[in-house]
Design goal:
6 strands, alpha+beta, 162 residues
Length: 162
């Protein structure tokens, strides 16, 4: 059986953010999320139908807060307060969960195993070791800098499991 998993392109990621947030989003190549950044990262764990980790997406606190505020039509100050306090406020976390759930659409394609959102780990929560290893792994990954117009930017890393 051939491997049919494919990383989404940066254009697809930008279009998803723009469609969901209803505002201009700029996406450019970025640095991967580093190990010291993981504790303040929102991580989405995607699994296949056998509950095996398929991919892990990480968003830095700044991106998660800005995207969560934009999705909820909250002022940019809500994101700034969240970033200053180094936690993702519950109302922003709820919006980011929805964003992660919609992001699943970029991982599913015809002929490939069905992928679903398994769990979202928020800043200051422990990311399971296997998911952490996938997020930080070299190989099949996409690392972007994502800027939400009038809010701010942050890093997004998506890594497919080996």
């Amino acid at each position: 059986m051939s491997d049919v998993s494919v990383l989404p392109g940066s254009l697809a990621v930008r279009n998803l953010f723009e469609d969901l947030l209803g505002r201009e989003v700029t996406v450019s190549p970025g640095d991967p999320i580093s190990a010291p950044e993981v504790p303040l990262t929102t991580s989405a764990i995607f699994t296949d139908s056998g509950q095996k980790i398929y991919a892990v997406m990480g968003m830095t606190l700044s991106l998660a807060a800005n995207a969560g505020a934009a999705l909820g039509l909250l002022p940019a100050g809500a994101a700034e307060d969240s970033i200053d306090e180094k936690q993702l406020f519950p109302n922003l976390a709820e919006n980011v969960f929805e964003l992660c759930n919609v992001f699943t659409s970029l991982l599913n394609k015809e002929g490939a195993p069905h992928v679903k959102l398994y769990q979202v780990i928020y800043p200051n929560q422990e990311l399971p070791a296997d998911a952490r290893a996938v997020l930080l792994a070299l190989g099949r990954r996409l690392d972007l800098s994502v800027e939400v117009n009038r809010y701010g930017k942050g890093k997004l890393s998506l890594s497919l499991a080996p």
